[in-house]
Amino acid sequence: MRESILRRIERLVPVLLVTSHDLPAADPDEVAAFCREFISSGTPAFRLLYLAMTLFLEALCRLRFRRSLYSLRPAEAEEFLESLYSSRSLLLNAVPTLLSTPLYLAYYGRDDVQEALGFEVRALREEALRREVVR
């Protein structure tokens, strides 16, 4: 995957990944590294779709605000994304959903976040290992 695309994704992390104040803070570098691996592991069609959605999101923001998504104040960016989420157009609604999915997978996959949510990570892993089927 090209570095310019990965830099765009890294810049989207603080914009798209909104977390609760009760949970641990997101590490943008860790999330970006997971996204890099996740997107690189996907099919070529998925990579192309993800890139197209990234560019489409940037174009929509420039059309609406005449500025880059990354230069918006947090409140403006949140309002913009909320307008996309609540749009009646399936395409507009799908853009932030698709782009944020790997970010949330990375964040909520962390052990400290799962424990803060009340999951006993070690116990769940041990139980999963006991249930593993060997053929």
Helix content: over 70%
Strand content: under 5%
Order of helices and strands: HHHHHHH
Q: Whole-number radius of gyration?
A: 17 Å
Number of strands: 0
The total of helices stands at 7
Instruction: Give the overall silhouette.
Output: globular
Q: Structural class, from secondary structure content?
A: mainly alpha
CA-CA gap between termini: 37 Å
So what's the oligomer here?
A: single chain
How would a textbook summarize the main sheet?
Answer: none
Mean pLDDT over the residues: 86
Poorly predicted residue ranges: none
Notes on the structure:
The protein is mainly α and 135 residues long. It has seven helices and no strands. It starts with a helix and ends in a 5-residue tail after the last helix. The model has no long low-confidence stretch (mean pLDDT 86).
Structure keywords:
single chain, 135 residues, 7 helices
Topology of this protein?
Blueprint: H1 3-16, H2 28-41, H3 44-65, H4 74-85, H5 90-108, H6 111-116, H7 121-130
Helix pairs in contact: 1-2, 2-5, 3-5
Question: Brief description of this entry?
Answer:
72% of the residues lie in helices and 0% in strands.
